[in-house]
Amino acid sequence: MSVPRKLLIDGEDIVLSLHTHVKALIVPAVVLIVLVGIGSYLTAVLASGRGSDGAAGWVLAGVWAVTAVALVGWAILPFLRWRTTEYTVTTKRVLYTSGLLSRTGRAMPLSRVNDVTFEKGLVDRLLGCGTLVVSDASEQTGMRLHDVPRVEAVHRRLTDLIFGGPDGLSDDGTGMPGGR
Predict the structure, then answer these.
(1) How far is CA 177 from the centre of its chain?
(2) DSSP-derived secondary structure letter, 164
(3) What CATH class has 10-19+87-169?
(4) How confident is the model at residue 174 (pLDDT cuts 50, 70, 90)?
(5) What is the rounded CA–CA span in Å between residue 26 and residue 107?
(6) Which are the contacts of 82, defined by CB distance < 8 A and separation ≥ 6?
């Protein structure tokens, strides 16, 4: 899912479009496996001891109802949250969009950015992701983009867009045209 064309400004092109790192899905995947395993185990135990009464059927239905609610809360919703969270870098802005039922977003023009940093903990270094911090000179706090895949490459590309011109040279007016 990328930023729709209708949300782009004239002359703006998408440079990078990323979801958060897949590490956000590790815990939901483990929860999914554990909950289905527990539900299956309890189903086997209750089905083998089923007598002539219908109480075991109601208990079994209760077990799977609780399992389904837990799966929605701890496995399906985190997956949908991961799927609908996106970081987009265009030639003019950095955009953060997220939301399942209602979408929220924030955009920061590249022309206002004065600092781009990244942070990587030990787990982030092992998995190849990190937090990208994009700051501007406004009173509003900068953007913290968590779990950005290949954060160092994204940092380099964003820094090049902000501080370098199309030719890779600084656009601060100090260079001489023609390389003199």
Answers:
(1) 41
(2) B
(3) mainly beta
(4) very low
(5) 29
(6) 19, 20, 22, 24, 25
Q: Is the pLDDT of residue 172 over 60?
A: no
**pLDDT of 149 strictly over 50:** yes
Contact criterion met (CB below 8 Å) for 85 and 97 = yes
- pLDDT tens digits, residue range 42-88? 988 888 876 556 777 888 899 999 999 999 999 999 999 999 999 99
| CA 130 – CA 86 distance, rounded (Å) | 15
Dihedral, CA atoms, 155, 160, 161, 165, nearest 10 degrees? Answer: 180
CA distances from 170 to 27, 43, 52, 134, 165 (A): 44, 66, 82, 19, 6
Phi, psi of 140 (to 5 degrees): -75, 145
How long, in residues, is the chain? Answer: 180
For residue 39 the two structure tokens come to: 């539900």
Alpha-carbon distances, residue 135 vs 51, 67, 78, 94, 176 (angstroms): 66, 43, 28, 11, 29
The verdict on pTM exceeding 0.85 is no
Domain boundaries, the chain: 10-19+87-169, 25-81
